[in-house]
Amino acid sequence: MSNLDQRPAPTPCGAEPRTGPVHELLAGREVPLGESTVVRRLLPSLGRRMVGAWVFVDHYGPDDIADEPGMQVPPHPHIGLQTVSWLHAGEVLHRDSLGSLQTVRPRELGLMTSGRAIAHSEESPSPHRNAPILHGAQLWVALPGEHRHTAPSFEHHTTLPVLRGGGGLSATVILGELDGAASPGTTFSPLVGADLALAAGTDTALPLTEDFEYAVLSMSGAPEIDGVPLPPGSLLYLGEGRRHLPLRSDHDAAVMLLGGVPFEEEIVMWWNFIGRSAEDIVQARADWEEGSRFGEVKGYAGDRLSAPALPPVPLKPRGRTR
Hints:
Blueprint: E1 11-12, E2 21-27, E3 29-33, E4 37-43, E5 54-64, E6 72-78, E7 81-89, E8 92-96, E9 101-104, E10 109-113, E11 118-123, E12 133-142, E13 153-157, E14 162-164, E15 169-178, E16 181-182, E17 191-198, E18 202-207, E19 213-220, E20 224-225, E21 228-229, E22 234-239, E23 244-249, E24 253-260, E25 268-270, E26 273-275, H1 278-290
Antiparallel strand pairs: 1-25, 2-22, 3-4, 4-5, 5-12, 6-11, 7-10, 7-12, 8-9, 8-11, 10-13, 14-15, 15-16, 15-17, 17-24, 18-23, 19-22, 19-24, 20-21, 20-23, 25-26
């Protein structure tokens, strides 16, 4: 997934100082993506920048794309992060500069590690007869400093662990670990991403890791998370210090649980890059514009994205405090 903003501001990343459990409800801002897709951007936001190593969260759909282009994101670059593609409906065709060509379908994990440099594109396969509804989330994970220059890679996992407990809850572990179940996806810091399906009448509690901070993204329905009603397309930041999370829903609903050890490093996040200094970002932009370092995405029917102009303000690394 790309940030298509042609005037992206530098994003001072890092969470607030540790405060224990909280309830902080964030509404997404609508951002156009490609020709016809509009996403709700939850992270980064004015109120919250990171949740563990999770630094970017877009929620989109459900959209009827039967007569629309659907998702059309031209080739663009990344450094210093992982992208996570997760669908509830529809299909997304992934291409990258490693030569990967993979259709990602609902409840399958598309995981790309940019490391030192990669380029990719994403598009809704045409025609859409078999998948006319598009609904999902795109997320980024910041790579720790010791791994930010790792070799780029792409993983596609069709089988993921599912936890089925009492009370109407089914939890698919997308990334990291949850209650003893581990995703096959590669991670570089302690974290969790899970898809929680809540059947009508769910009333239960999910075990958590006390030293993680957490947030819940509402995908569909109207569940209550720790007693807080959560509208679709919103994000509830929950803080740290939790051993379990109460969940209930009168009707079928779905949410994504995101969590991890608070990310303590100072980083610079601008456009589609995460670095540790202004020089990292300036060099990555120059390399992309010059056609070096990132490789070529072959097969996409269109031009690649040009990098926007650098901002007039200095790019400074920021940590957890503002």
